[in-house]
Amino acid sequence: MLGCTLRGGSCPLVCLWALLLPLVSLHSLNQHGHRGRDVRDHPKLLLVSFDGFRWDYVDRVPTPNFHALMDEGVRVEKVENTYITKTFPNHYSLVTGLYAETHGIVANEMYDPVLNRSFSMETDSIYDPRWWDEAVPLWVTNQRAGQRSGAAMWPGSDVEINGTYPTRYLPYNASVPFETRVEQIIEWFSAPDEEAVDFGVLYWEEPDESGHNLGPESSLMDVVIVNIDEKLGFLRNELRKAGLYEKVNLIVTSDHGMTQLSPDKIIELDVYVSRDLYTWVDKSPVVGILPKEGHFEDVYSKLADANPHMMVYKKVEVPEHLHYKHNIRIMPIIIEAQEGWTVMQNRTGRFMLGNHGYNNSLPSMHPVFVARGPAFRQDYVKTSMRSVDLYPLMCHILSLRPLPNNGSLANVRDLLSPEPTTPTPSVPARVPSYSYAPAVGSLLGVVMVLGFLVVYIRQVTLKQLPSLPLRSREMSQPLLQEDLHL
Ligand SMILES: [Zn+2]
């Protein structure tokens, strides 16, 4: 029976094929649609942070690569970052659009009284997801939307946040050169369509480290800034070589600036209050003080008016506009040093010539911001923005629905090209390329059914049907009769 003849025995299979063909076509559509994102049309975005790159460094020494990006795209002169102006809080604000009190990374050094655990950027404590899970970074949102993300050393990007790692990422290792990070992330962007990332984050530790050690006023910083510009030049060249320069939207920014310190501007807390009465949680210039049980008022009263170069807040009295109050990881007493001043317990600790972390209204704390690419205007300078506005802007570029955040796309929409270069959401954009498949499949099915009918009618007119008895199975499948007859 399986040895069907062309004329009659093939009919059940032909019918089956004819009926299934359109479905097969549809199945192919779904399968293709699932794994075959049209990456060529989907927007791409690379967010780069040069840690501690102050906004005005680009005007201090020749920085041709930064200025090329400004000419080709946009510059924002004043970016108000989030309080406190430290590395971990601000990098998380950039990718969540949230203030520190909301995203939960409130400092580089933290204590969580519920977890009864401490966080330090110097230890493996950062790999505990519970510190990060109060927010969802953009790379996770991007992946939940079916896209792919790549992360090269961005703070927190090698942590399993909300149960998710970036699609591709490098575990943090400060000794990996900038050039290697760039080559890796460009490889991820350049992968075959179904493997390529759409969103990348890239981090470099300088000029922060040199800014701390030398002080931003040092003429030695000039060389450091020129070197960062050369690194940006390397990135631009690698993007060009990969054919990505005109396709990738490139944002170059930072977490904070840097200000000059002086050994003459030191506040020694031991002069005012015994260190036995409190735990020193976060470091200068915004210090988190956790009084020992029963000593809150005692510690506060001893510090409150102790030194004119520091503000001392009870947590509940921190000004609302700083958005640094509503989180249990913010300590009961907060000391904020005046710009340029250093808070220490005594002078035996490590002293730096440059620091950041001060009030985010200070220009010296503000980071650089330049961007270029198909989504951005050209040769456009904007006076100011808030760093939390970057998140909704990036979501817009990536056609992602932003999660609730503290930013506003309306505040930064003028950075975007007025031309309709922002592609429509990816799912509708994919449909047209597959729309012929079901129609072709159906047409082929109809043709084959008609062909079968012609053959069958011709056959029954030439042959006499066998008489009963036939089993009911065969009655319902008259096309089998020729084989059975044999
Ligand atoms: Zn930093």
From TrEMBL:
SUPFAM superfamilies: Alkaline phosphatase-like (SSF53649). The chain crosses the membrane at residues 436-457. Keywords: Membrane, Signal, Transmembrane, Transmembrane helix. The keyword Chaperone does not apply. It comes from Myripristis murdjan (pinecone soldierfish). Residues 1-26 form the signal peptide. InterPro entries: Alkaline_phosphatase_core_sf, Phosphodiest/P_Trfase. The keyword Signal applies. Pfam families: Phosphodiest. This is Ectonucleotide pyrophosphatase/phosphodiesterase 5.
